[in-house]
Amino acid sequence: MPEELVRLSKRISELGIASRREADAWIEKGWVKVNGEIAVLGMKVRSSDRIQISSKAKAQQDKLVTVVLNKPIGYVSGQAEDGYEPAKVLVTAQNRWEKDDSPLRFHPSQLAHLVPAGRLDIDSVGLLVLTQDGRVAKSIIGENSEIEKEYIVRVTRFDGYEPKLTTEQLQLLNYGLSLDGKPLQRAKVTWLNEDELRFILKEGKKRQIRRMCEAVGLKVLRLKRVRVGNIVLGQLPLGQWRYIKPTEHF
Fold first, then answer.
1. DSSP E strand stretches across 72-194
2. Which residues does the annotation mark as catalytic?
3. pLDDT of the chain, 250 residues: tens digit per residue
4. Domains 6-61 and 66-142+233-243 share a fold
5. Does domain 6-61 match CATH 2.60.120.970?
6. Which pTM value belongs to this model?
7. Do the Cβ atoms of 139 and 250 come closer than 8 Å?
């Protein structure tokens, strides 16, 4: 059976070299060769084909920035909606954390194609990753991502009483719930104190934690993301941001 051909930009993305959009841009500039020949946009390749990327593409990629922002309530993660501003508007020279020791200097051009790698609801706070690098975005929110996201969640019961869960309900939060007809991946959910839970997830469906809590009779009062992979929120002040350094990896 003949091997199935795939679009070159998809193959480059599968290899973890760049996002499809980046790959298409490189191909248009003549920075990609297949078996020694300059590639053309839209061409298809086999897994055995030899793909070469120009050093110009690598140099351009090295200039891409990734930042972490401590998002306040009232900002949406991505595009502006319903009159609410996107969190990206907080990435300004004035809002850069004074303790950020990255040698990078802020320039408005860094805002171009700076997109969230994962959503954080408008009424949630904490660590939001914004990146120009498709590789970073894919590693965090790609279909096969294994990167953990950690949240501290303050809860109450809908009747106002002190939040309590049976052993079975806590087990259900860890594994066994479904949303929109699809089973959720296994999570790690533990009590942090008498009214706060720690959630560690590897997925991020829309309003997932709030809906999980509702399923066991709990109402979320405050939701804060404190870690994405190896990157922690730490002492980053609310509404401020910092660069991810080359030595840091998700």
1. 115-116, 125-131, 149-157, 178-179, 182-183, 188-193
2. 121
3. 667 888 999 898 888 888 788 889 889 989 899 999 899 998 999 988 899 998 888 777 778 899 999 999 999 998 777 788 999 999 999 999 999 999 999 998 899 889 999 889 999 999 999 999 888 988 898 878 899 999 999 999 887 778 889 999 999 999 999 999 999 999 999 999 999 999 999 998 889 999 999 999 999 999 999 999 999 999 999 999 999 988 898 9
4. no
5. no
6. 0.81
7. yes
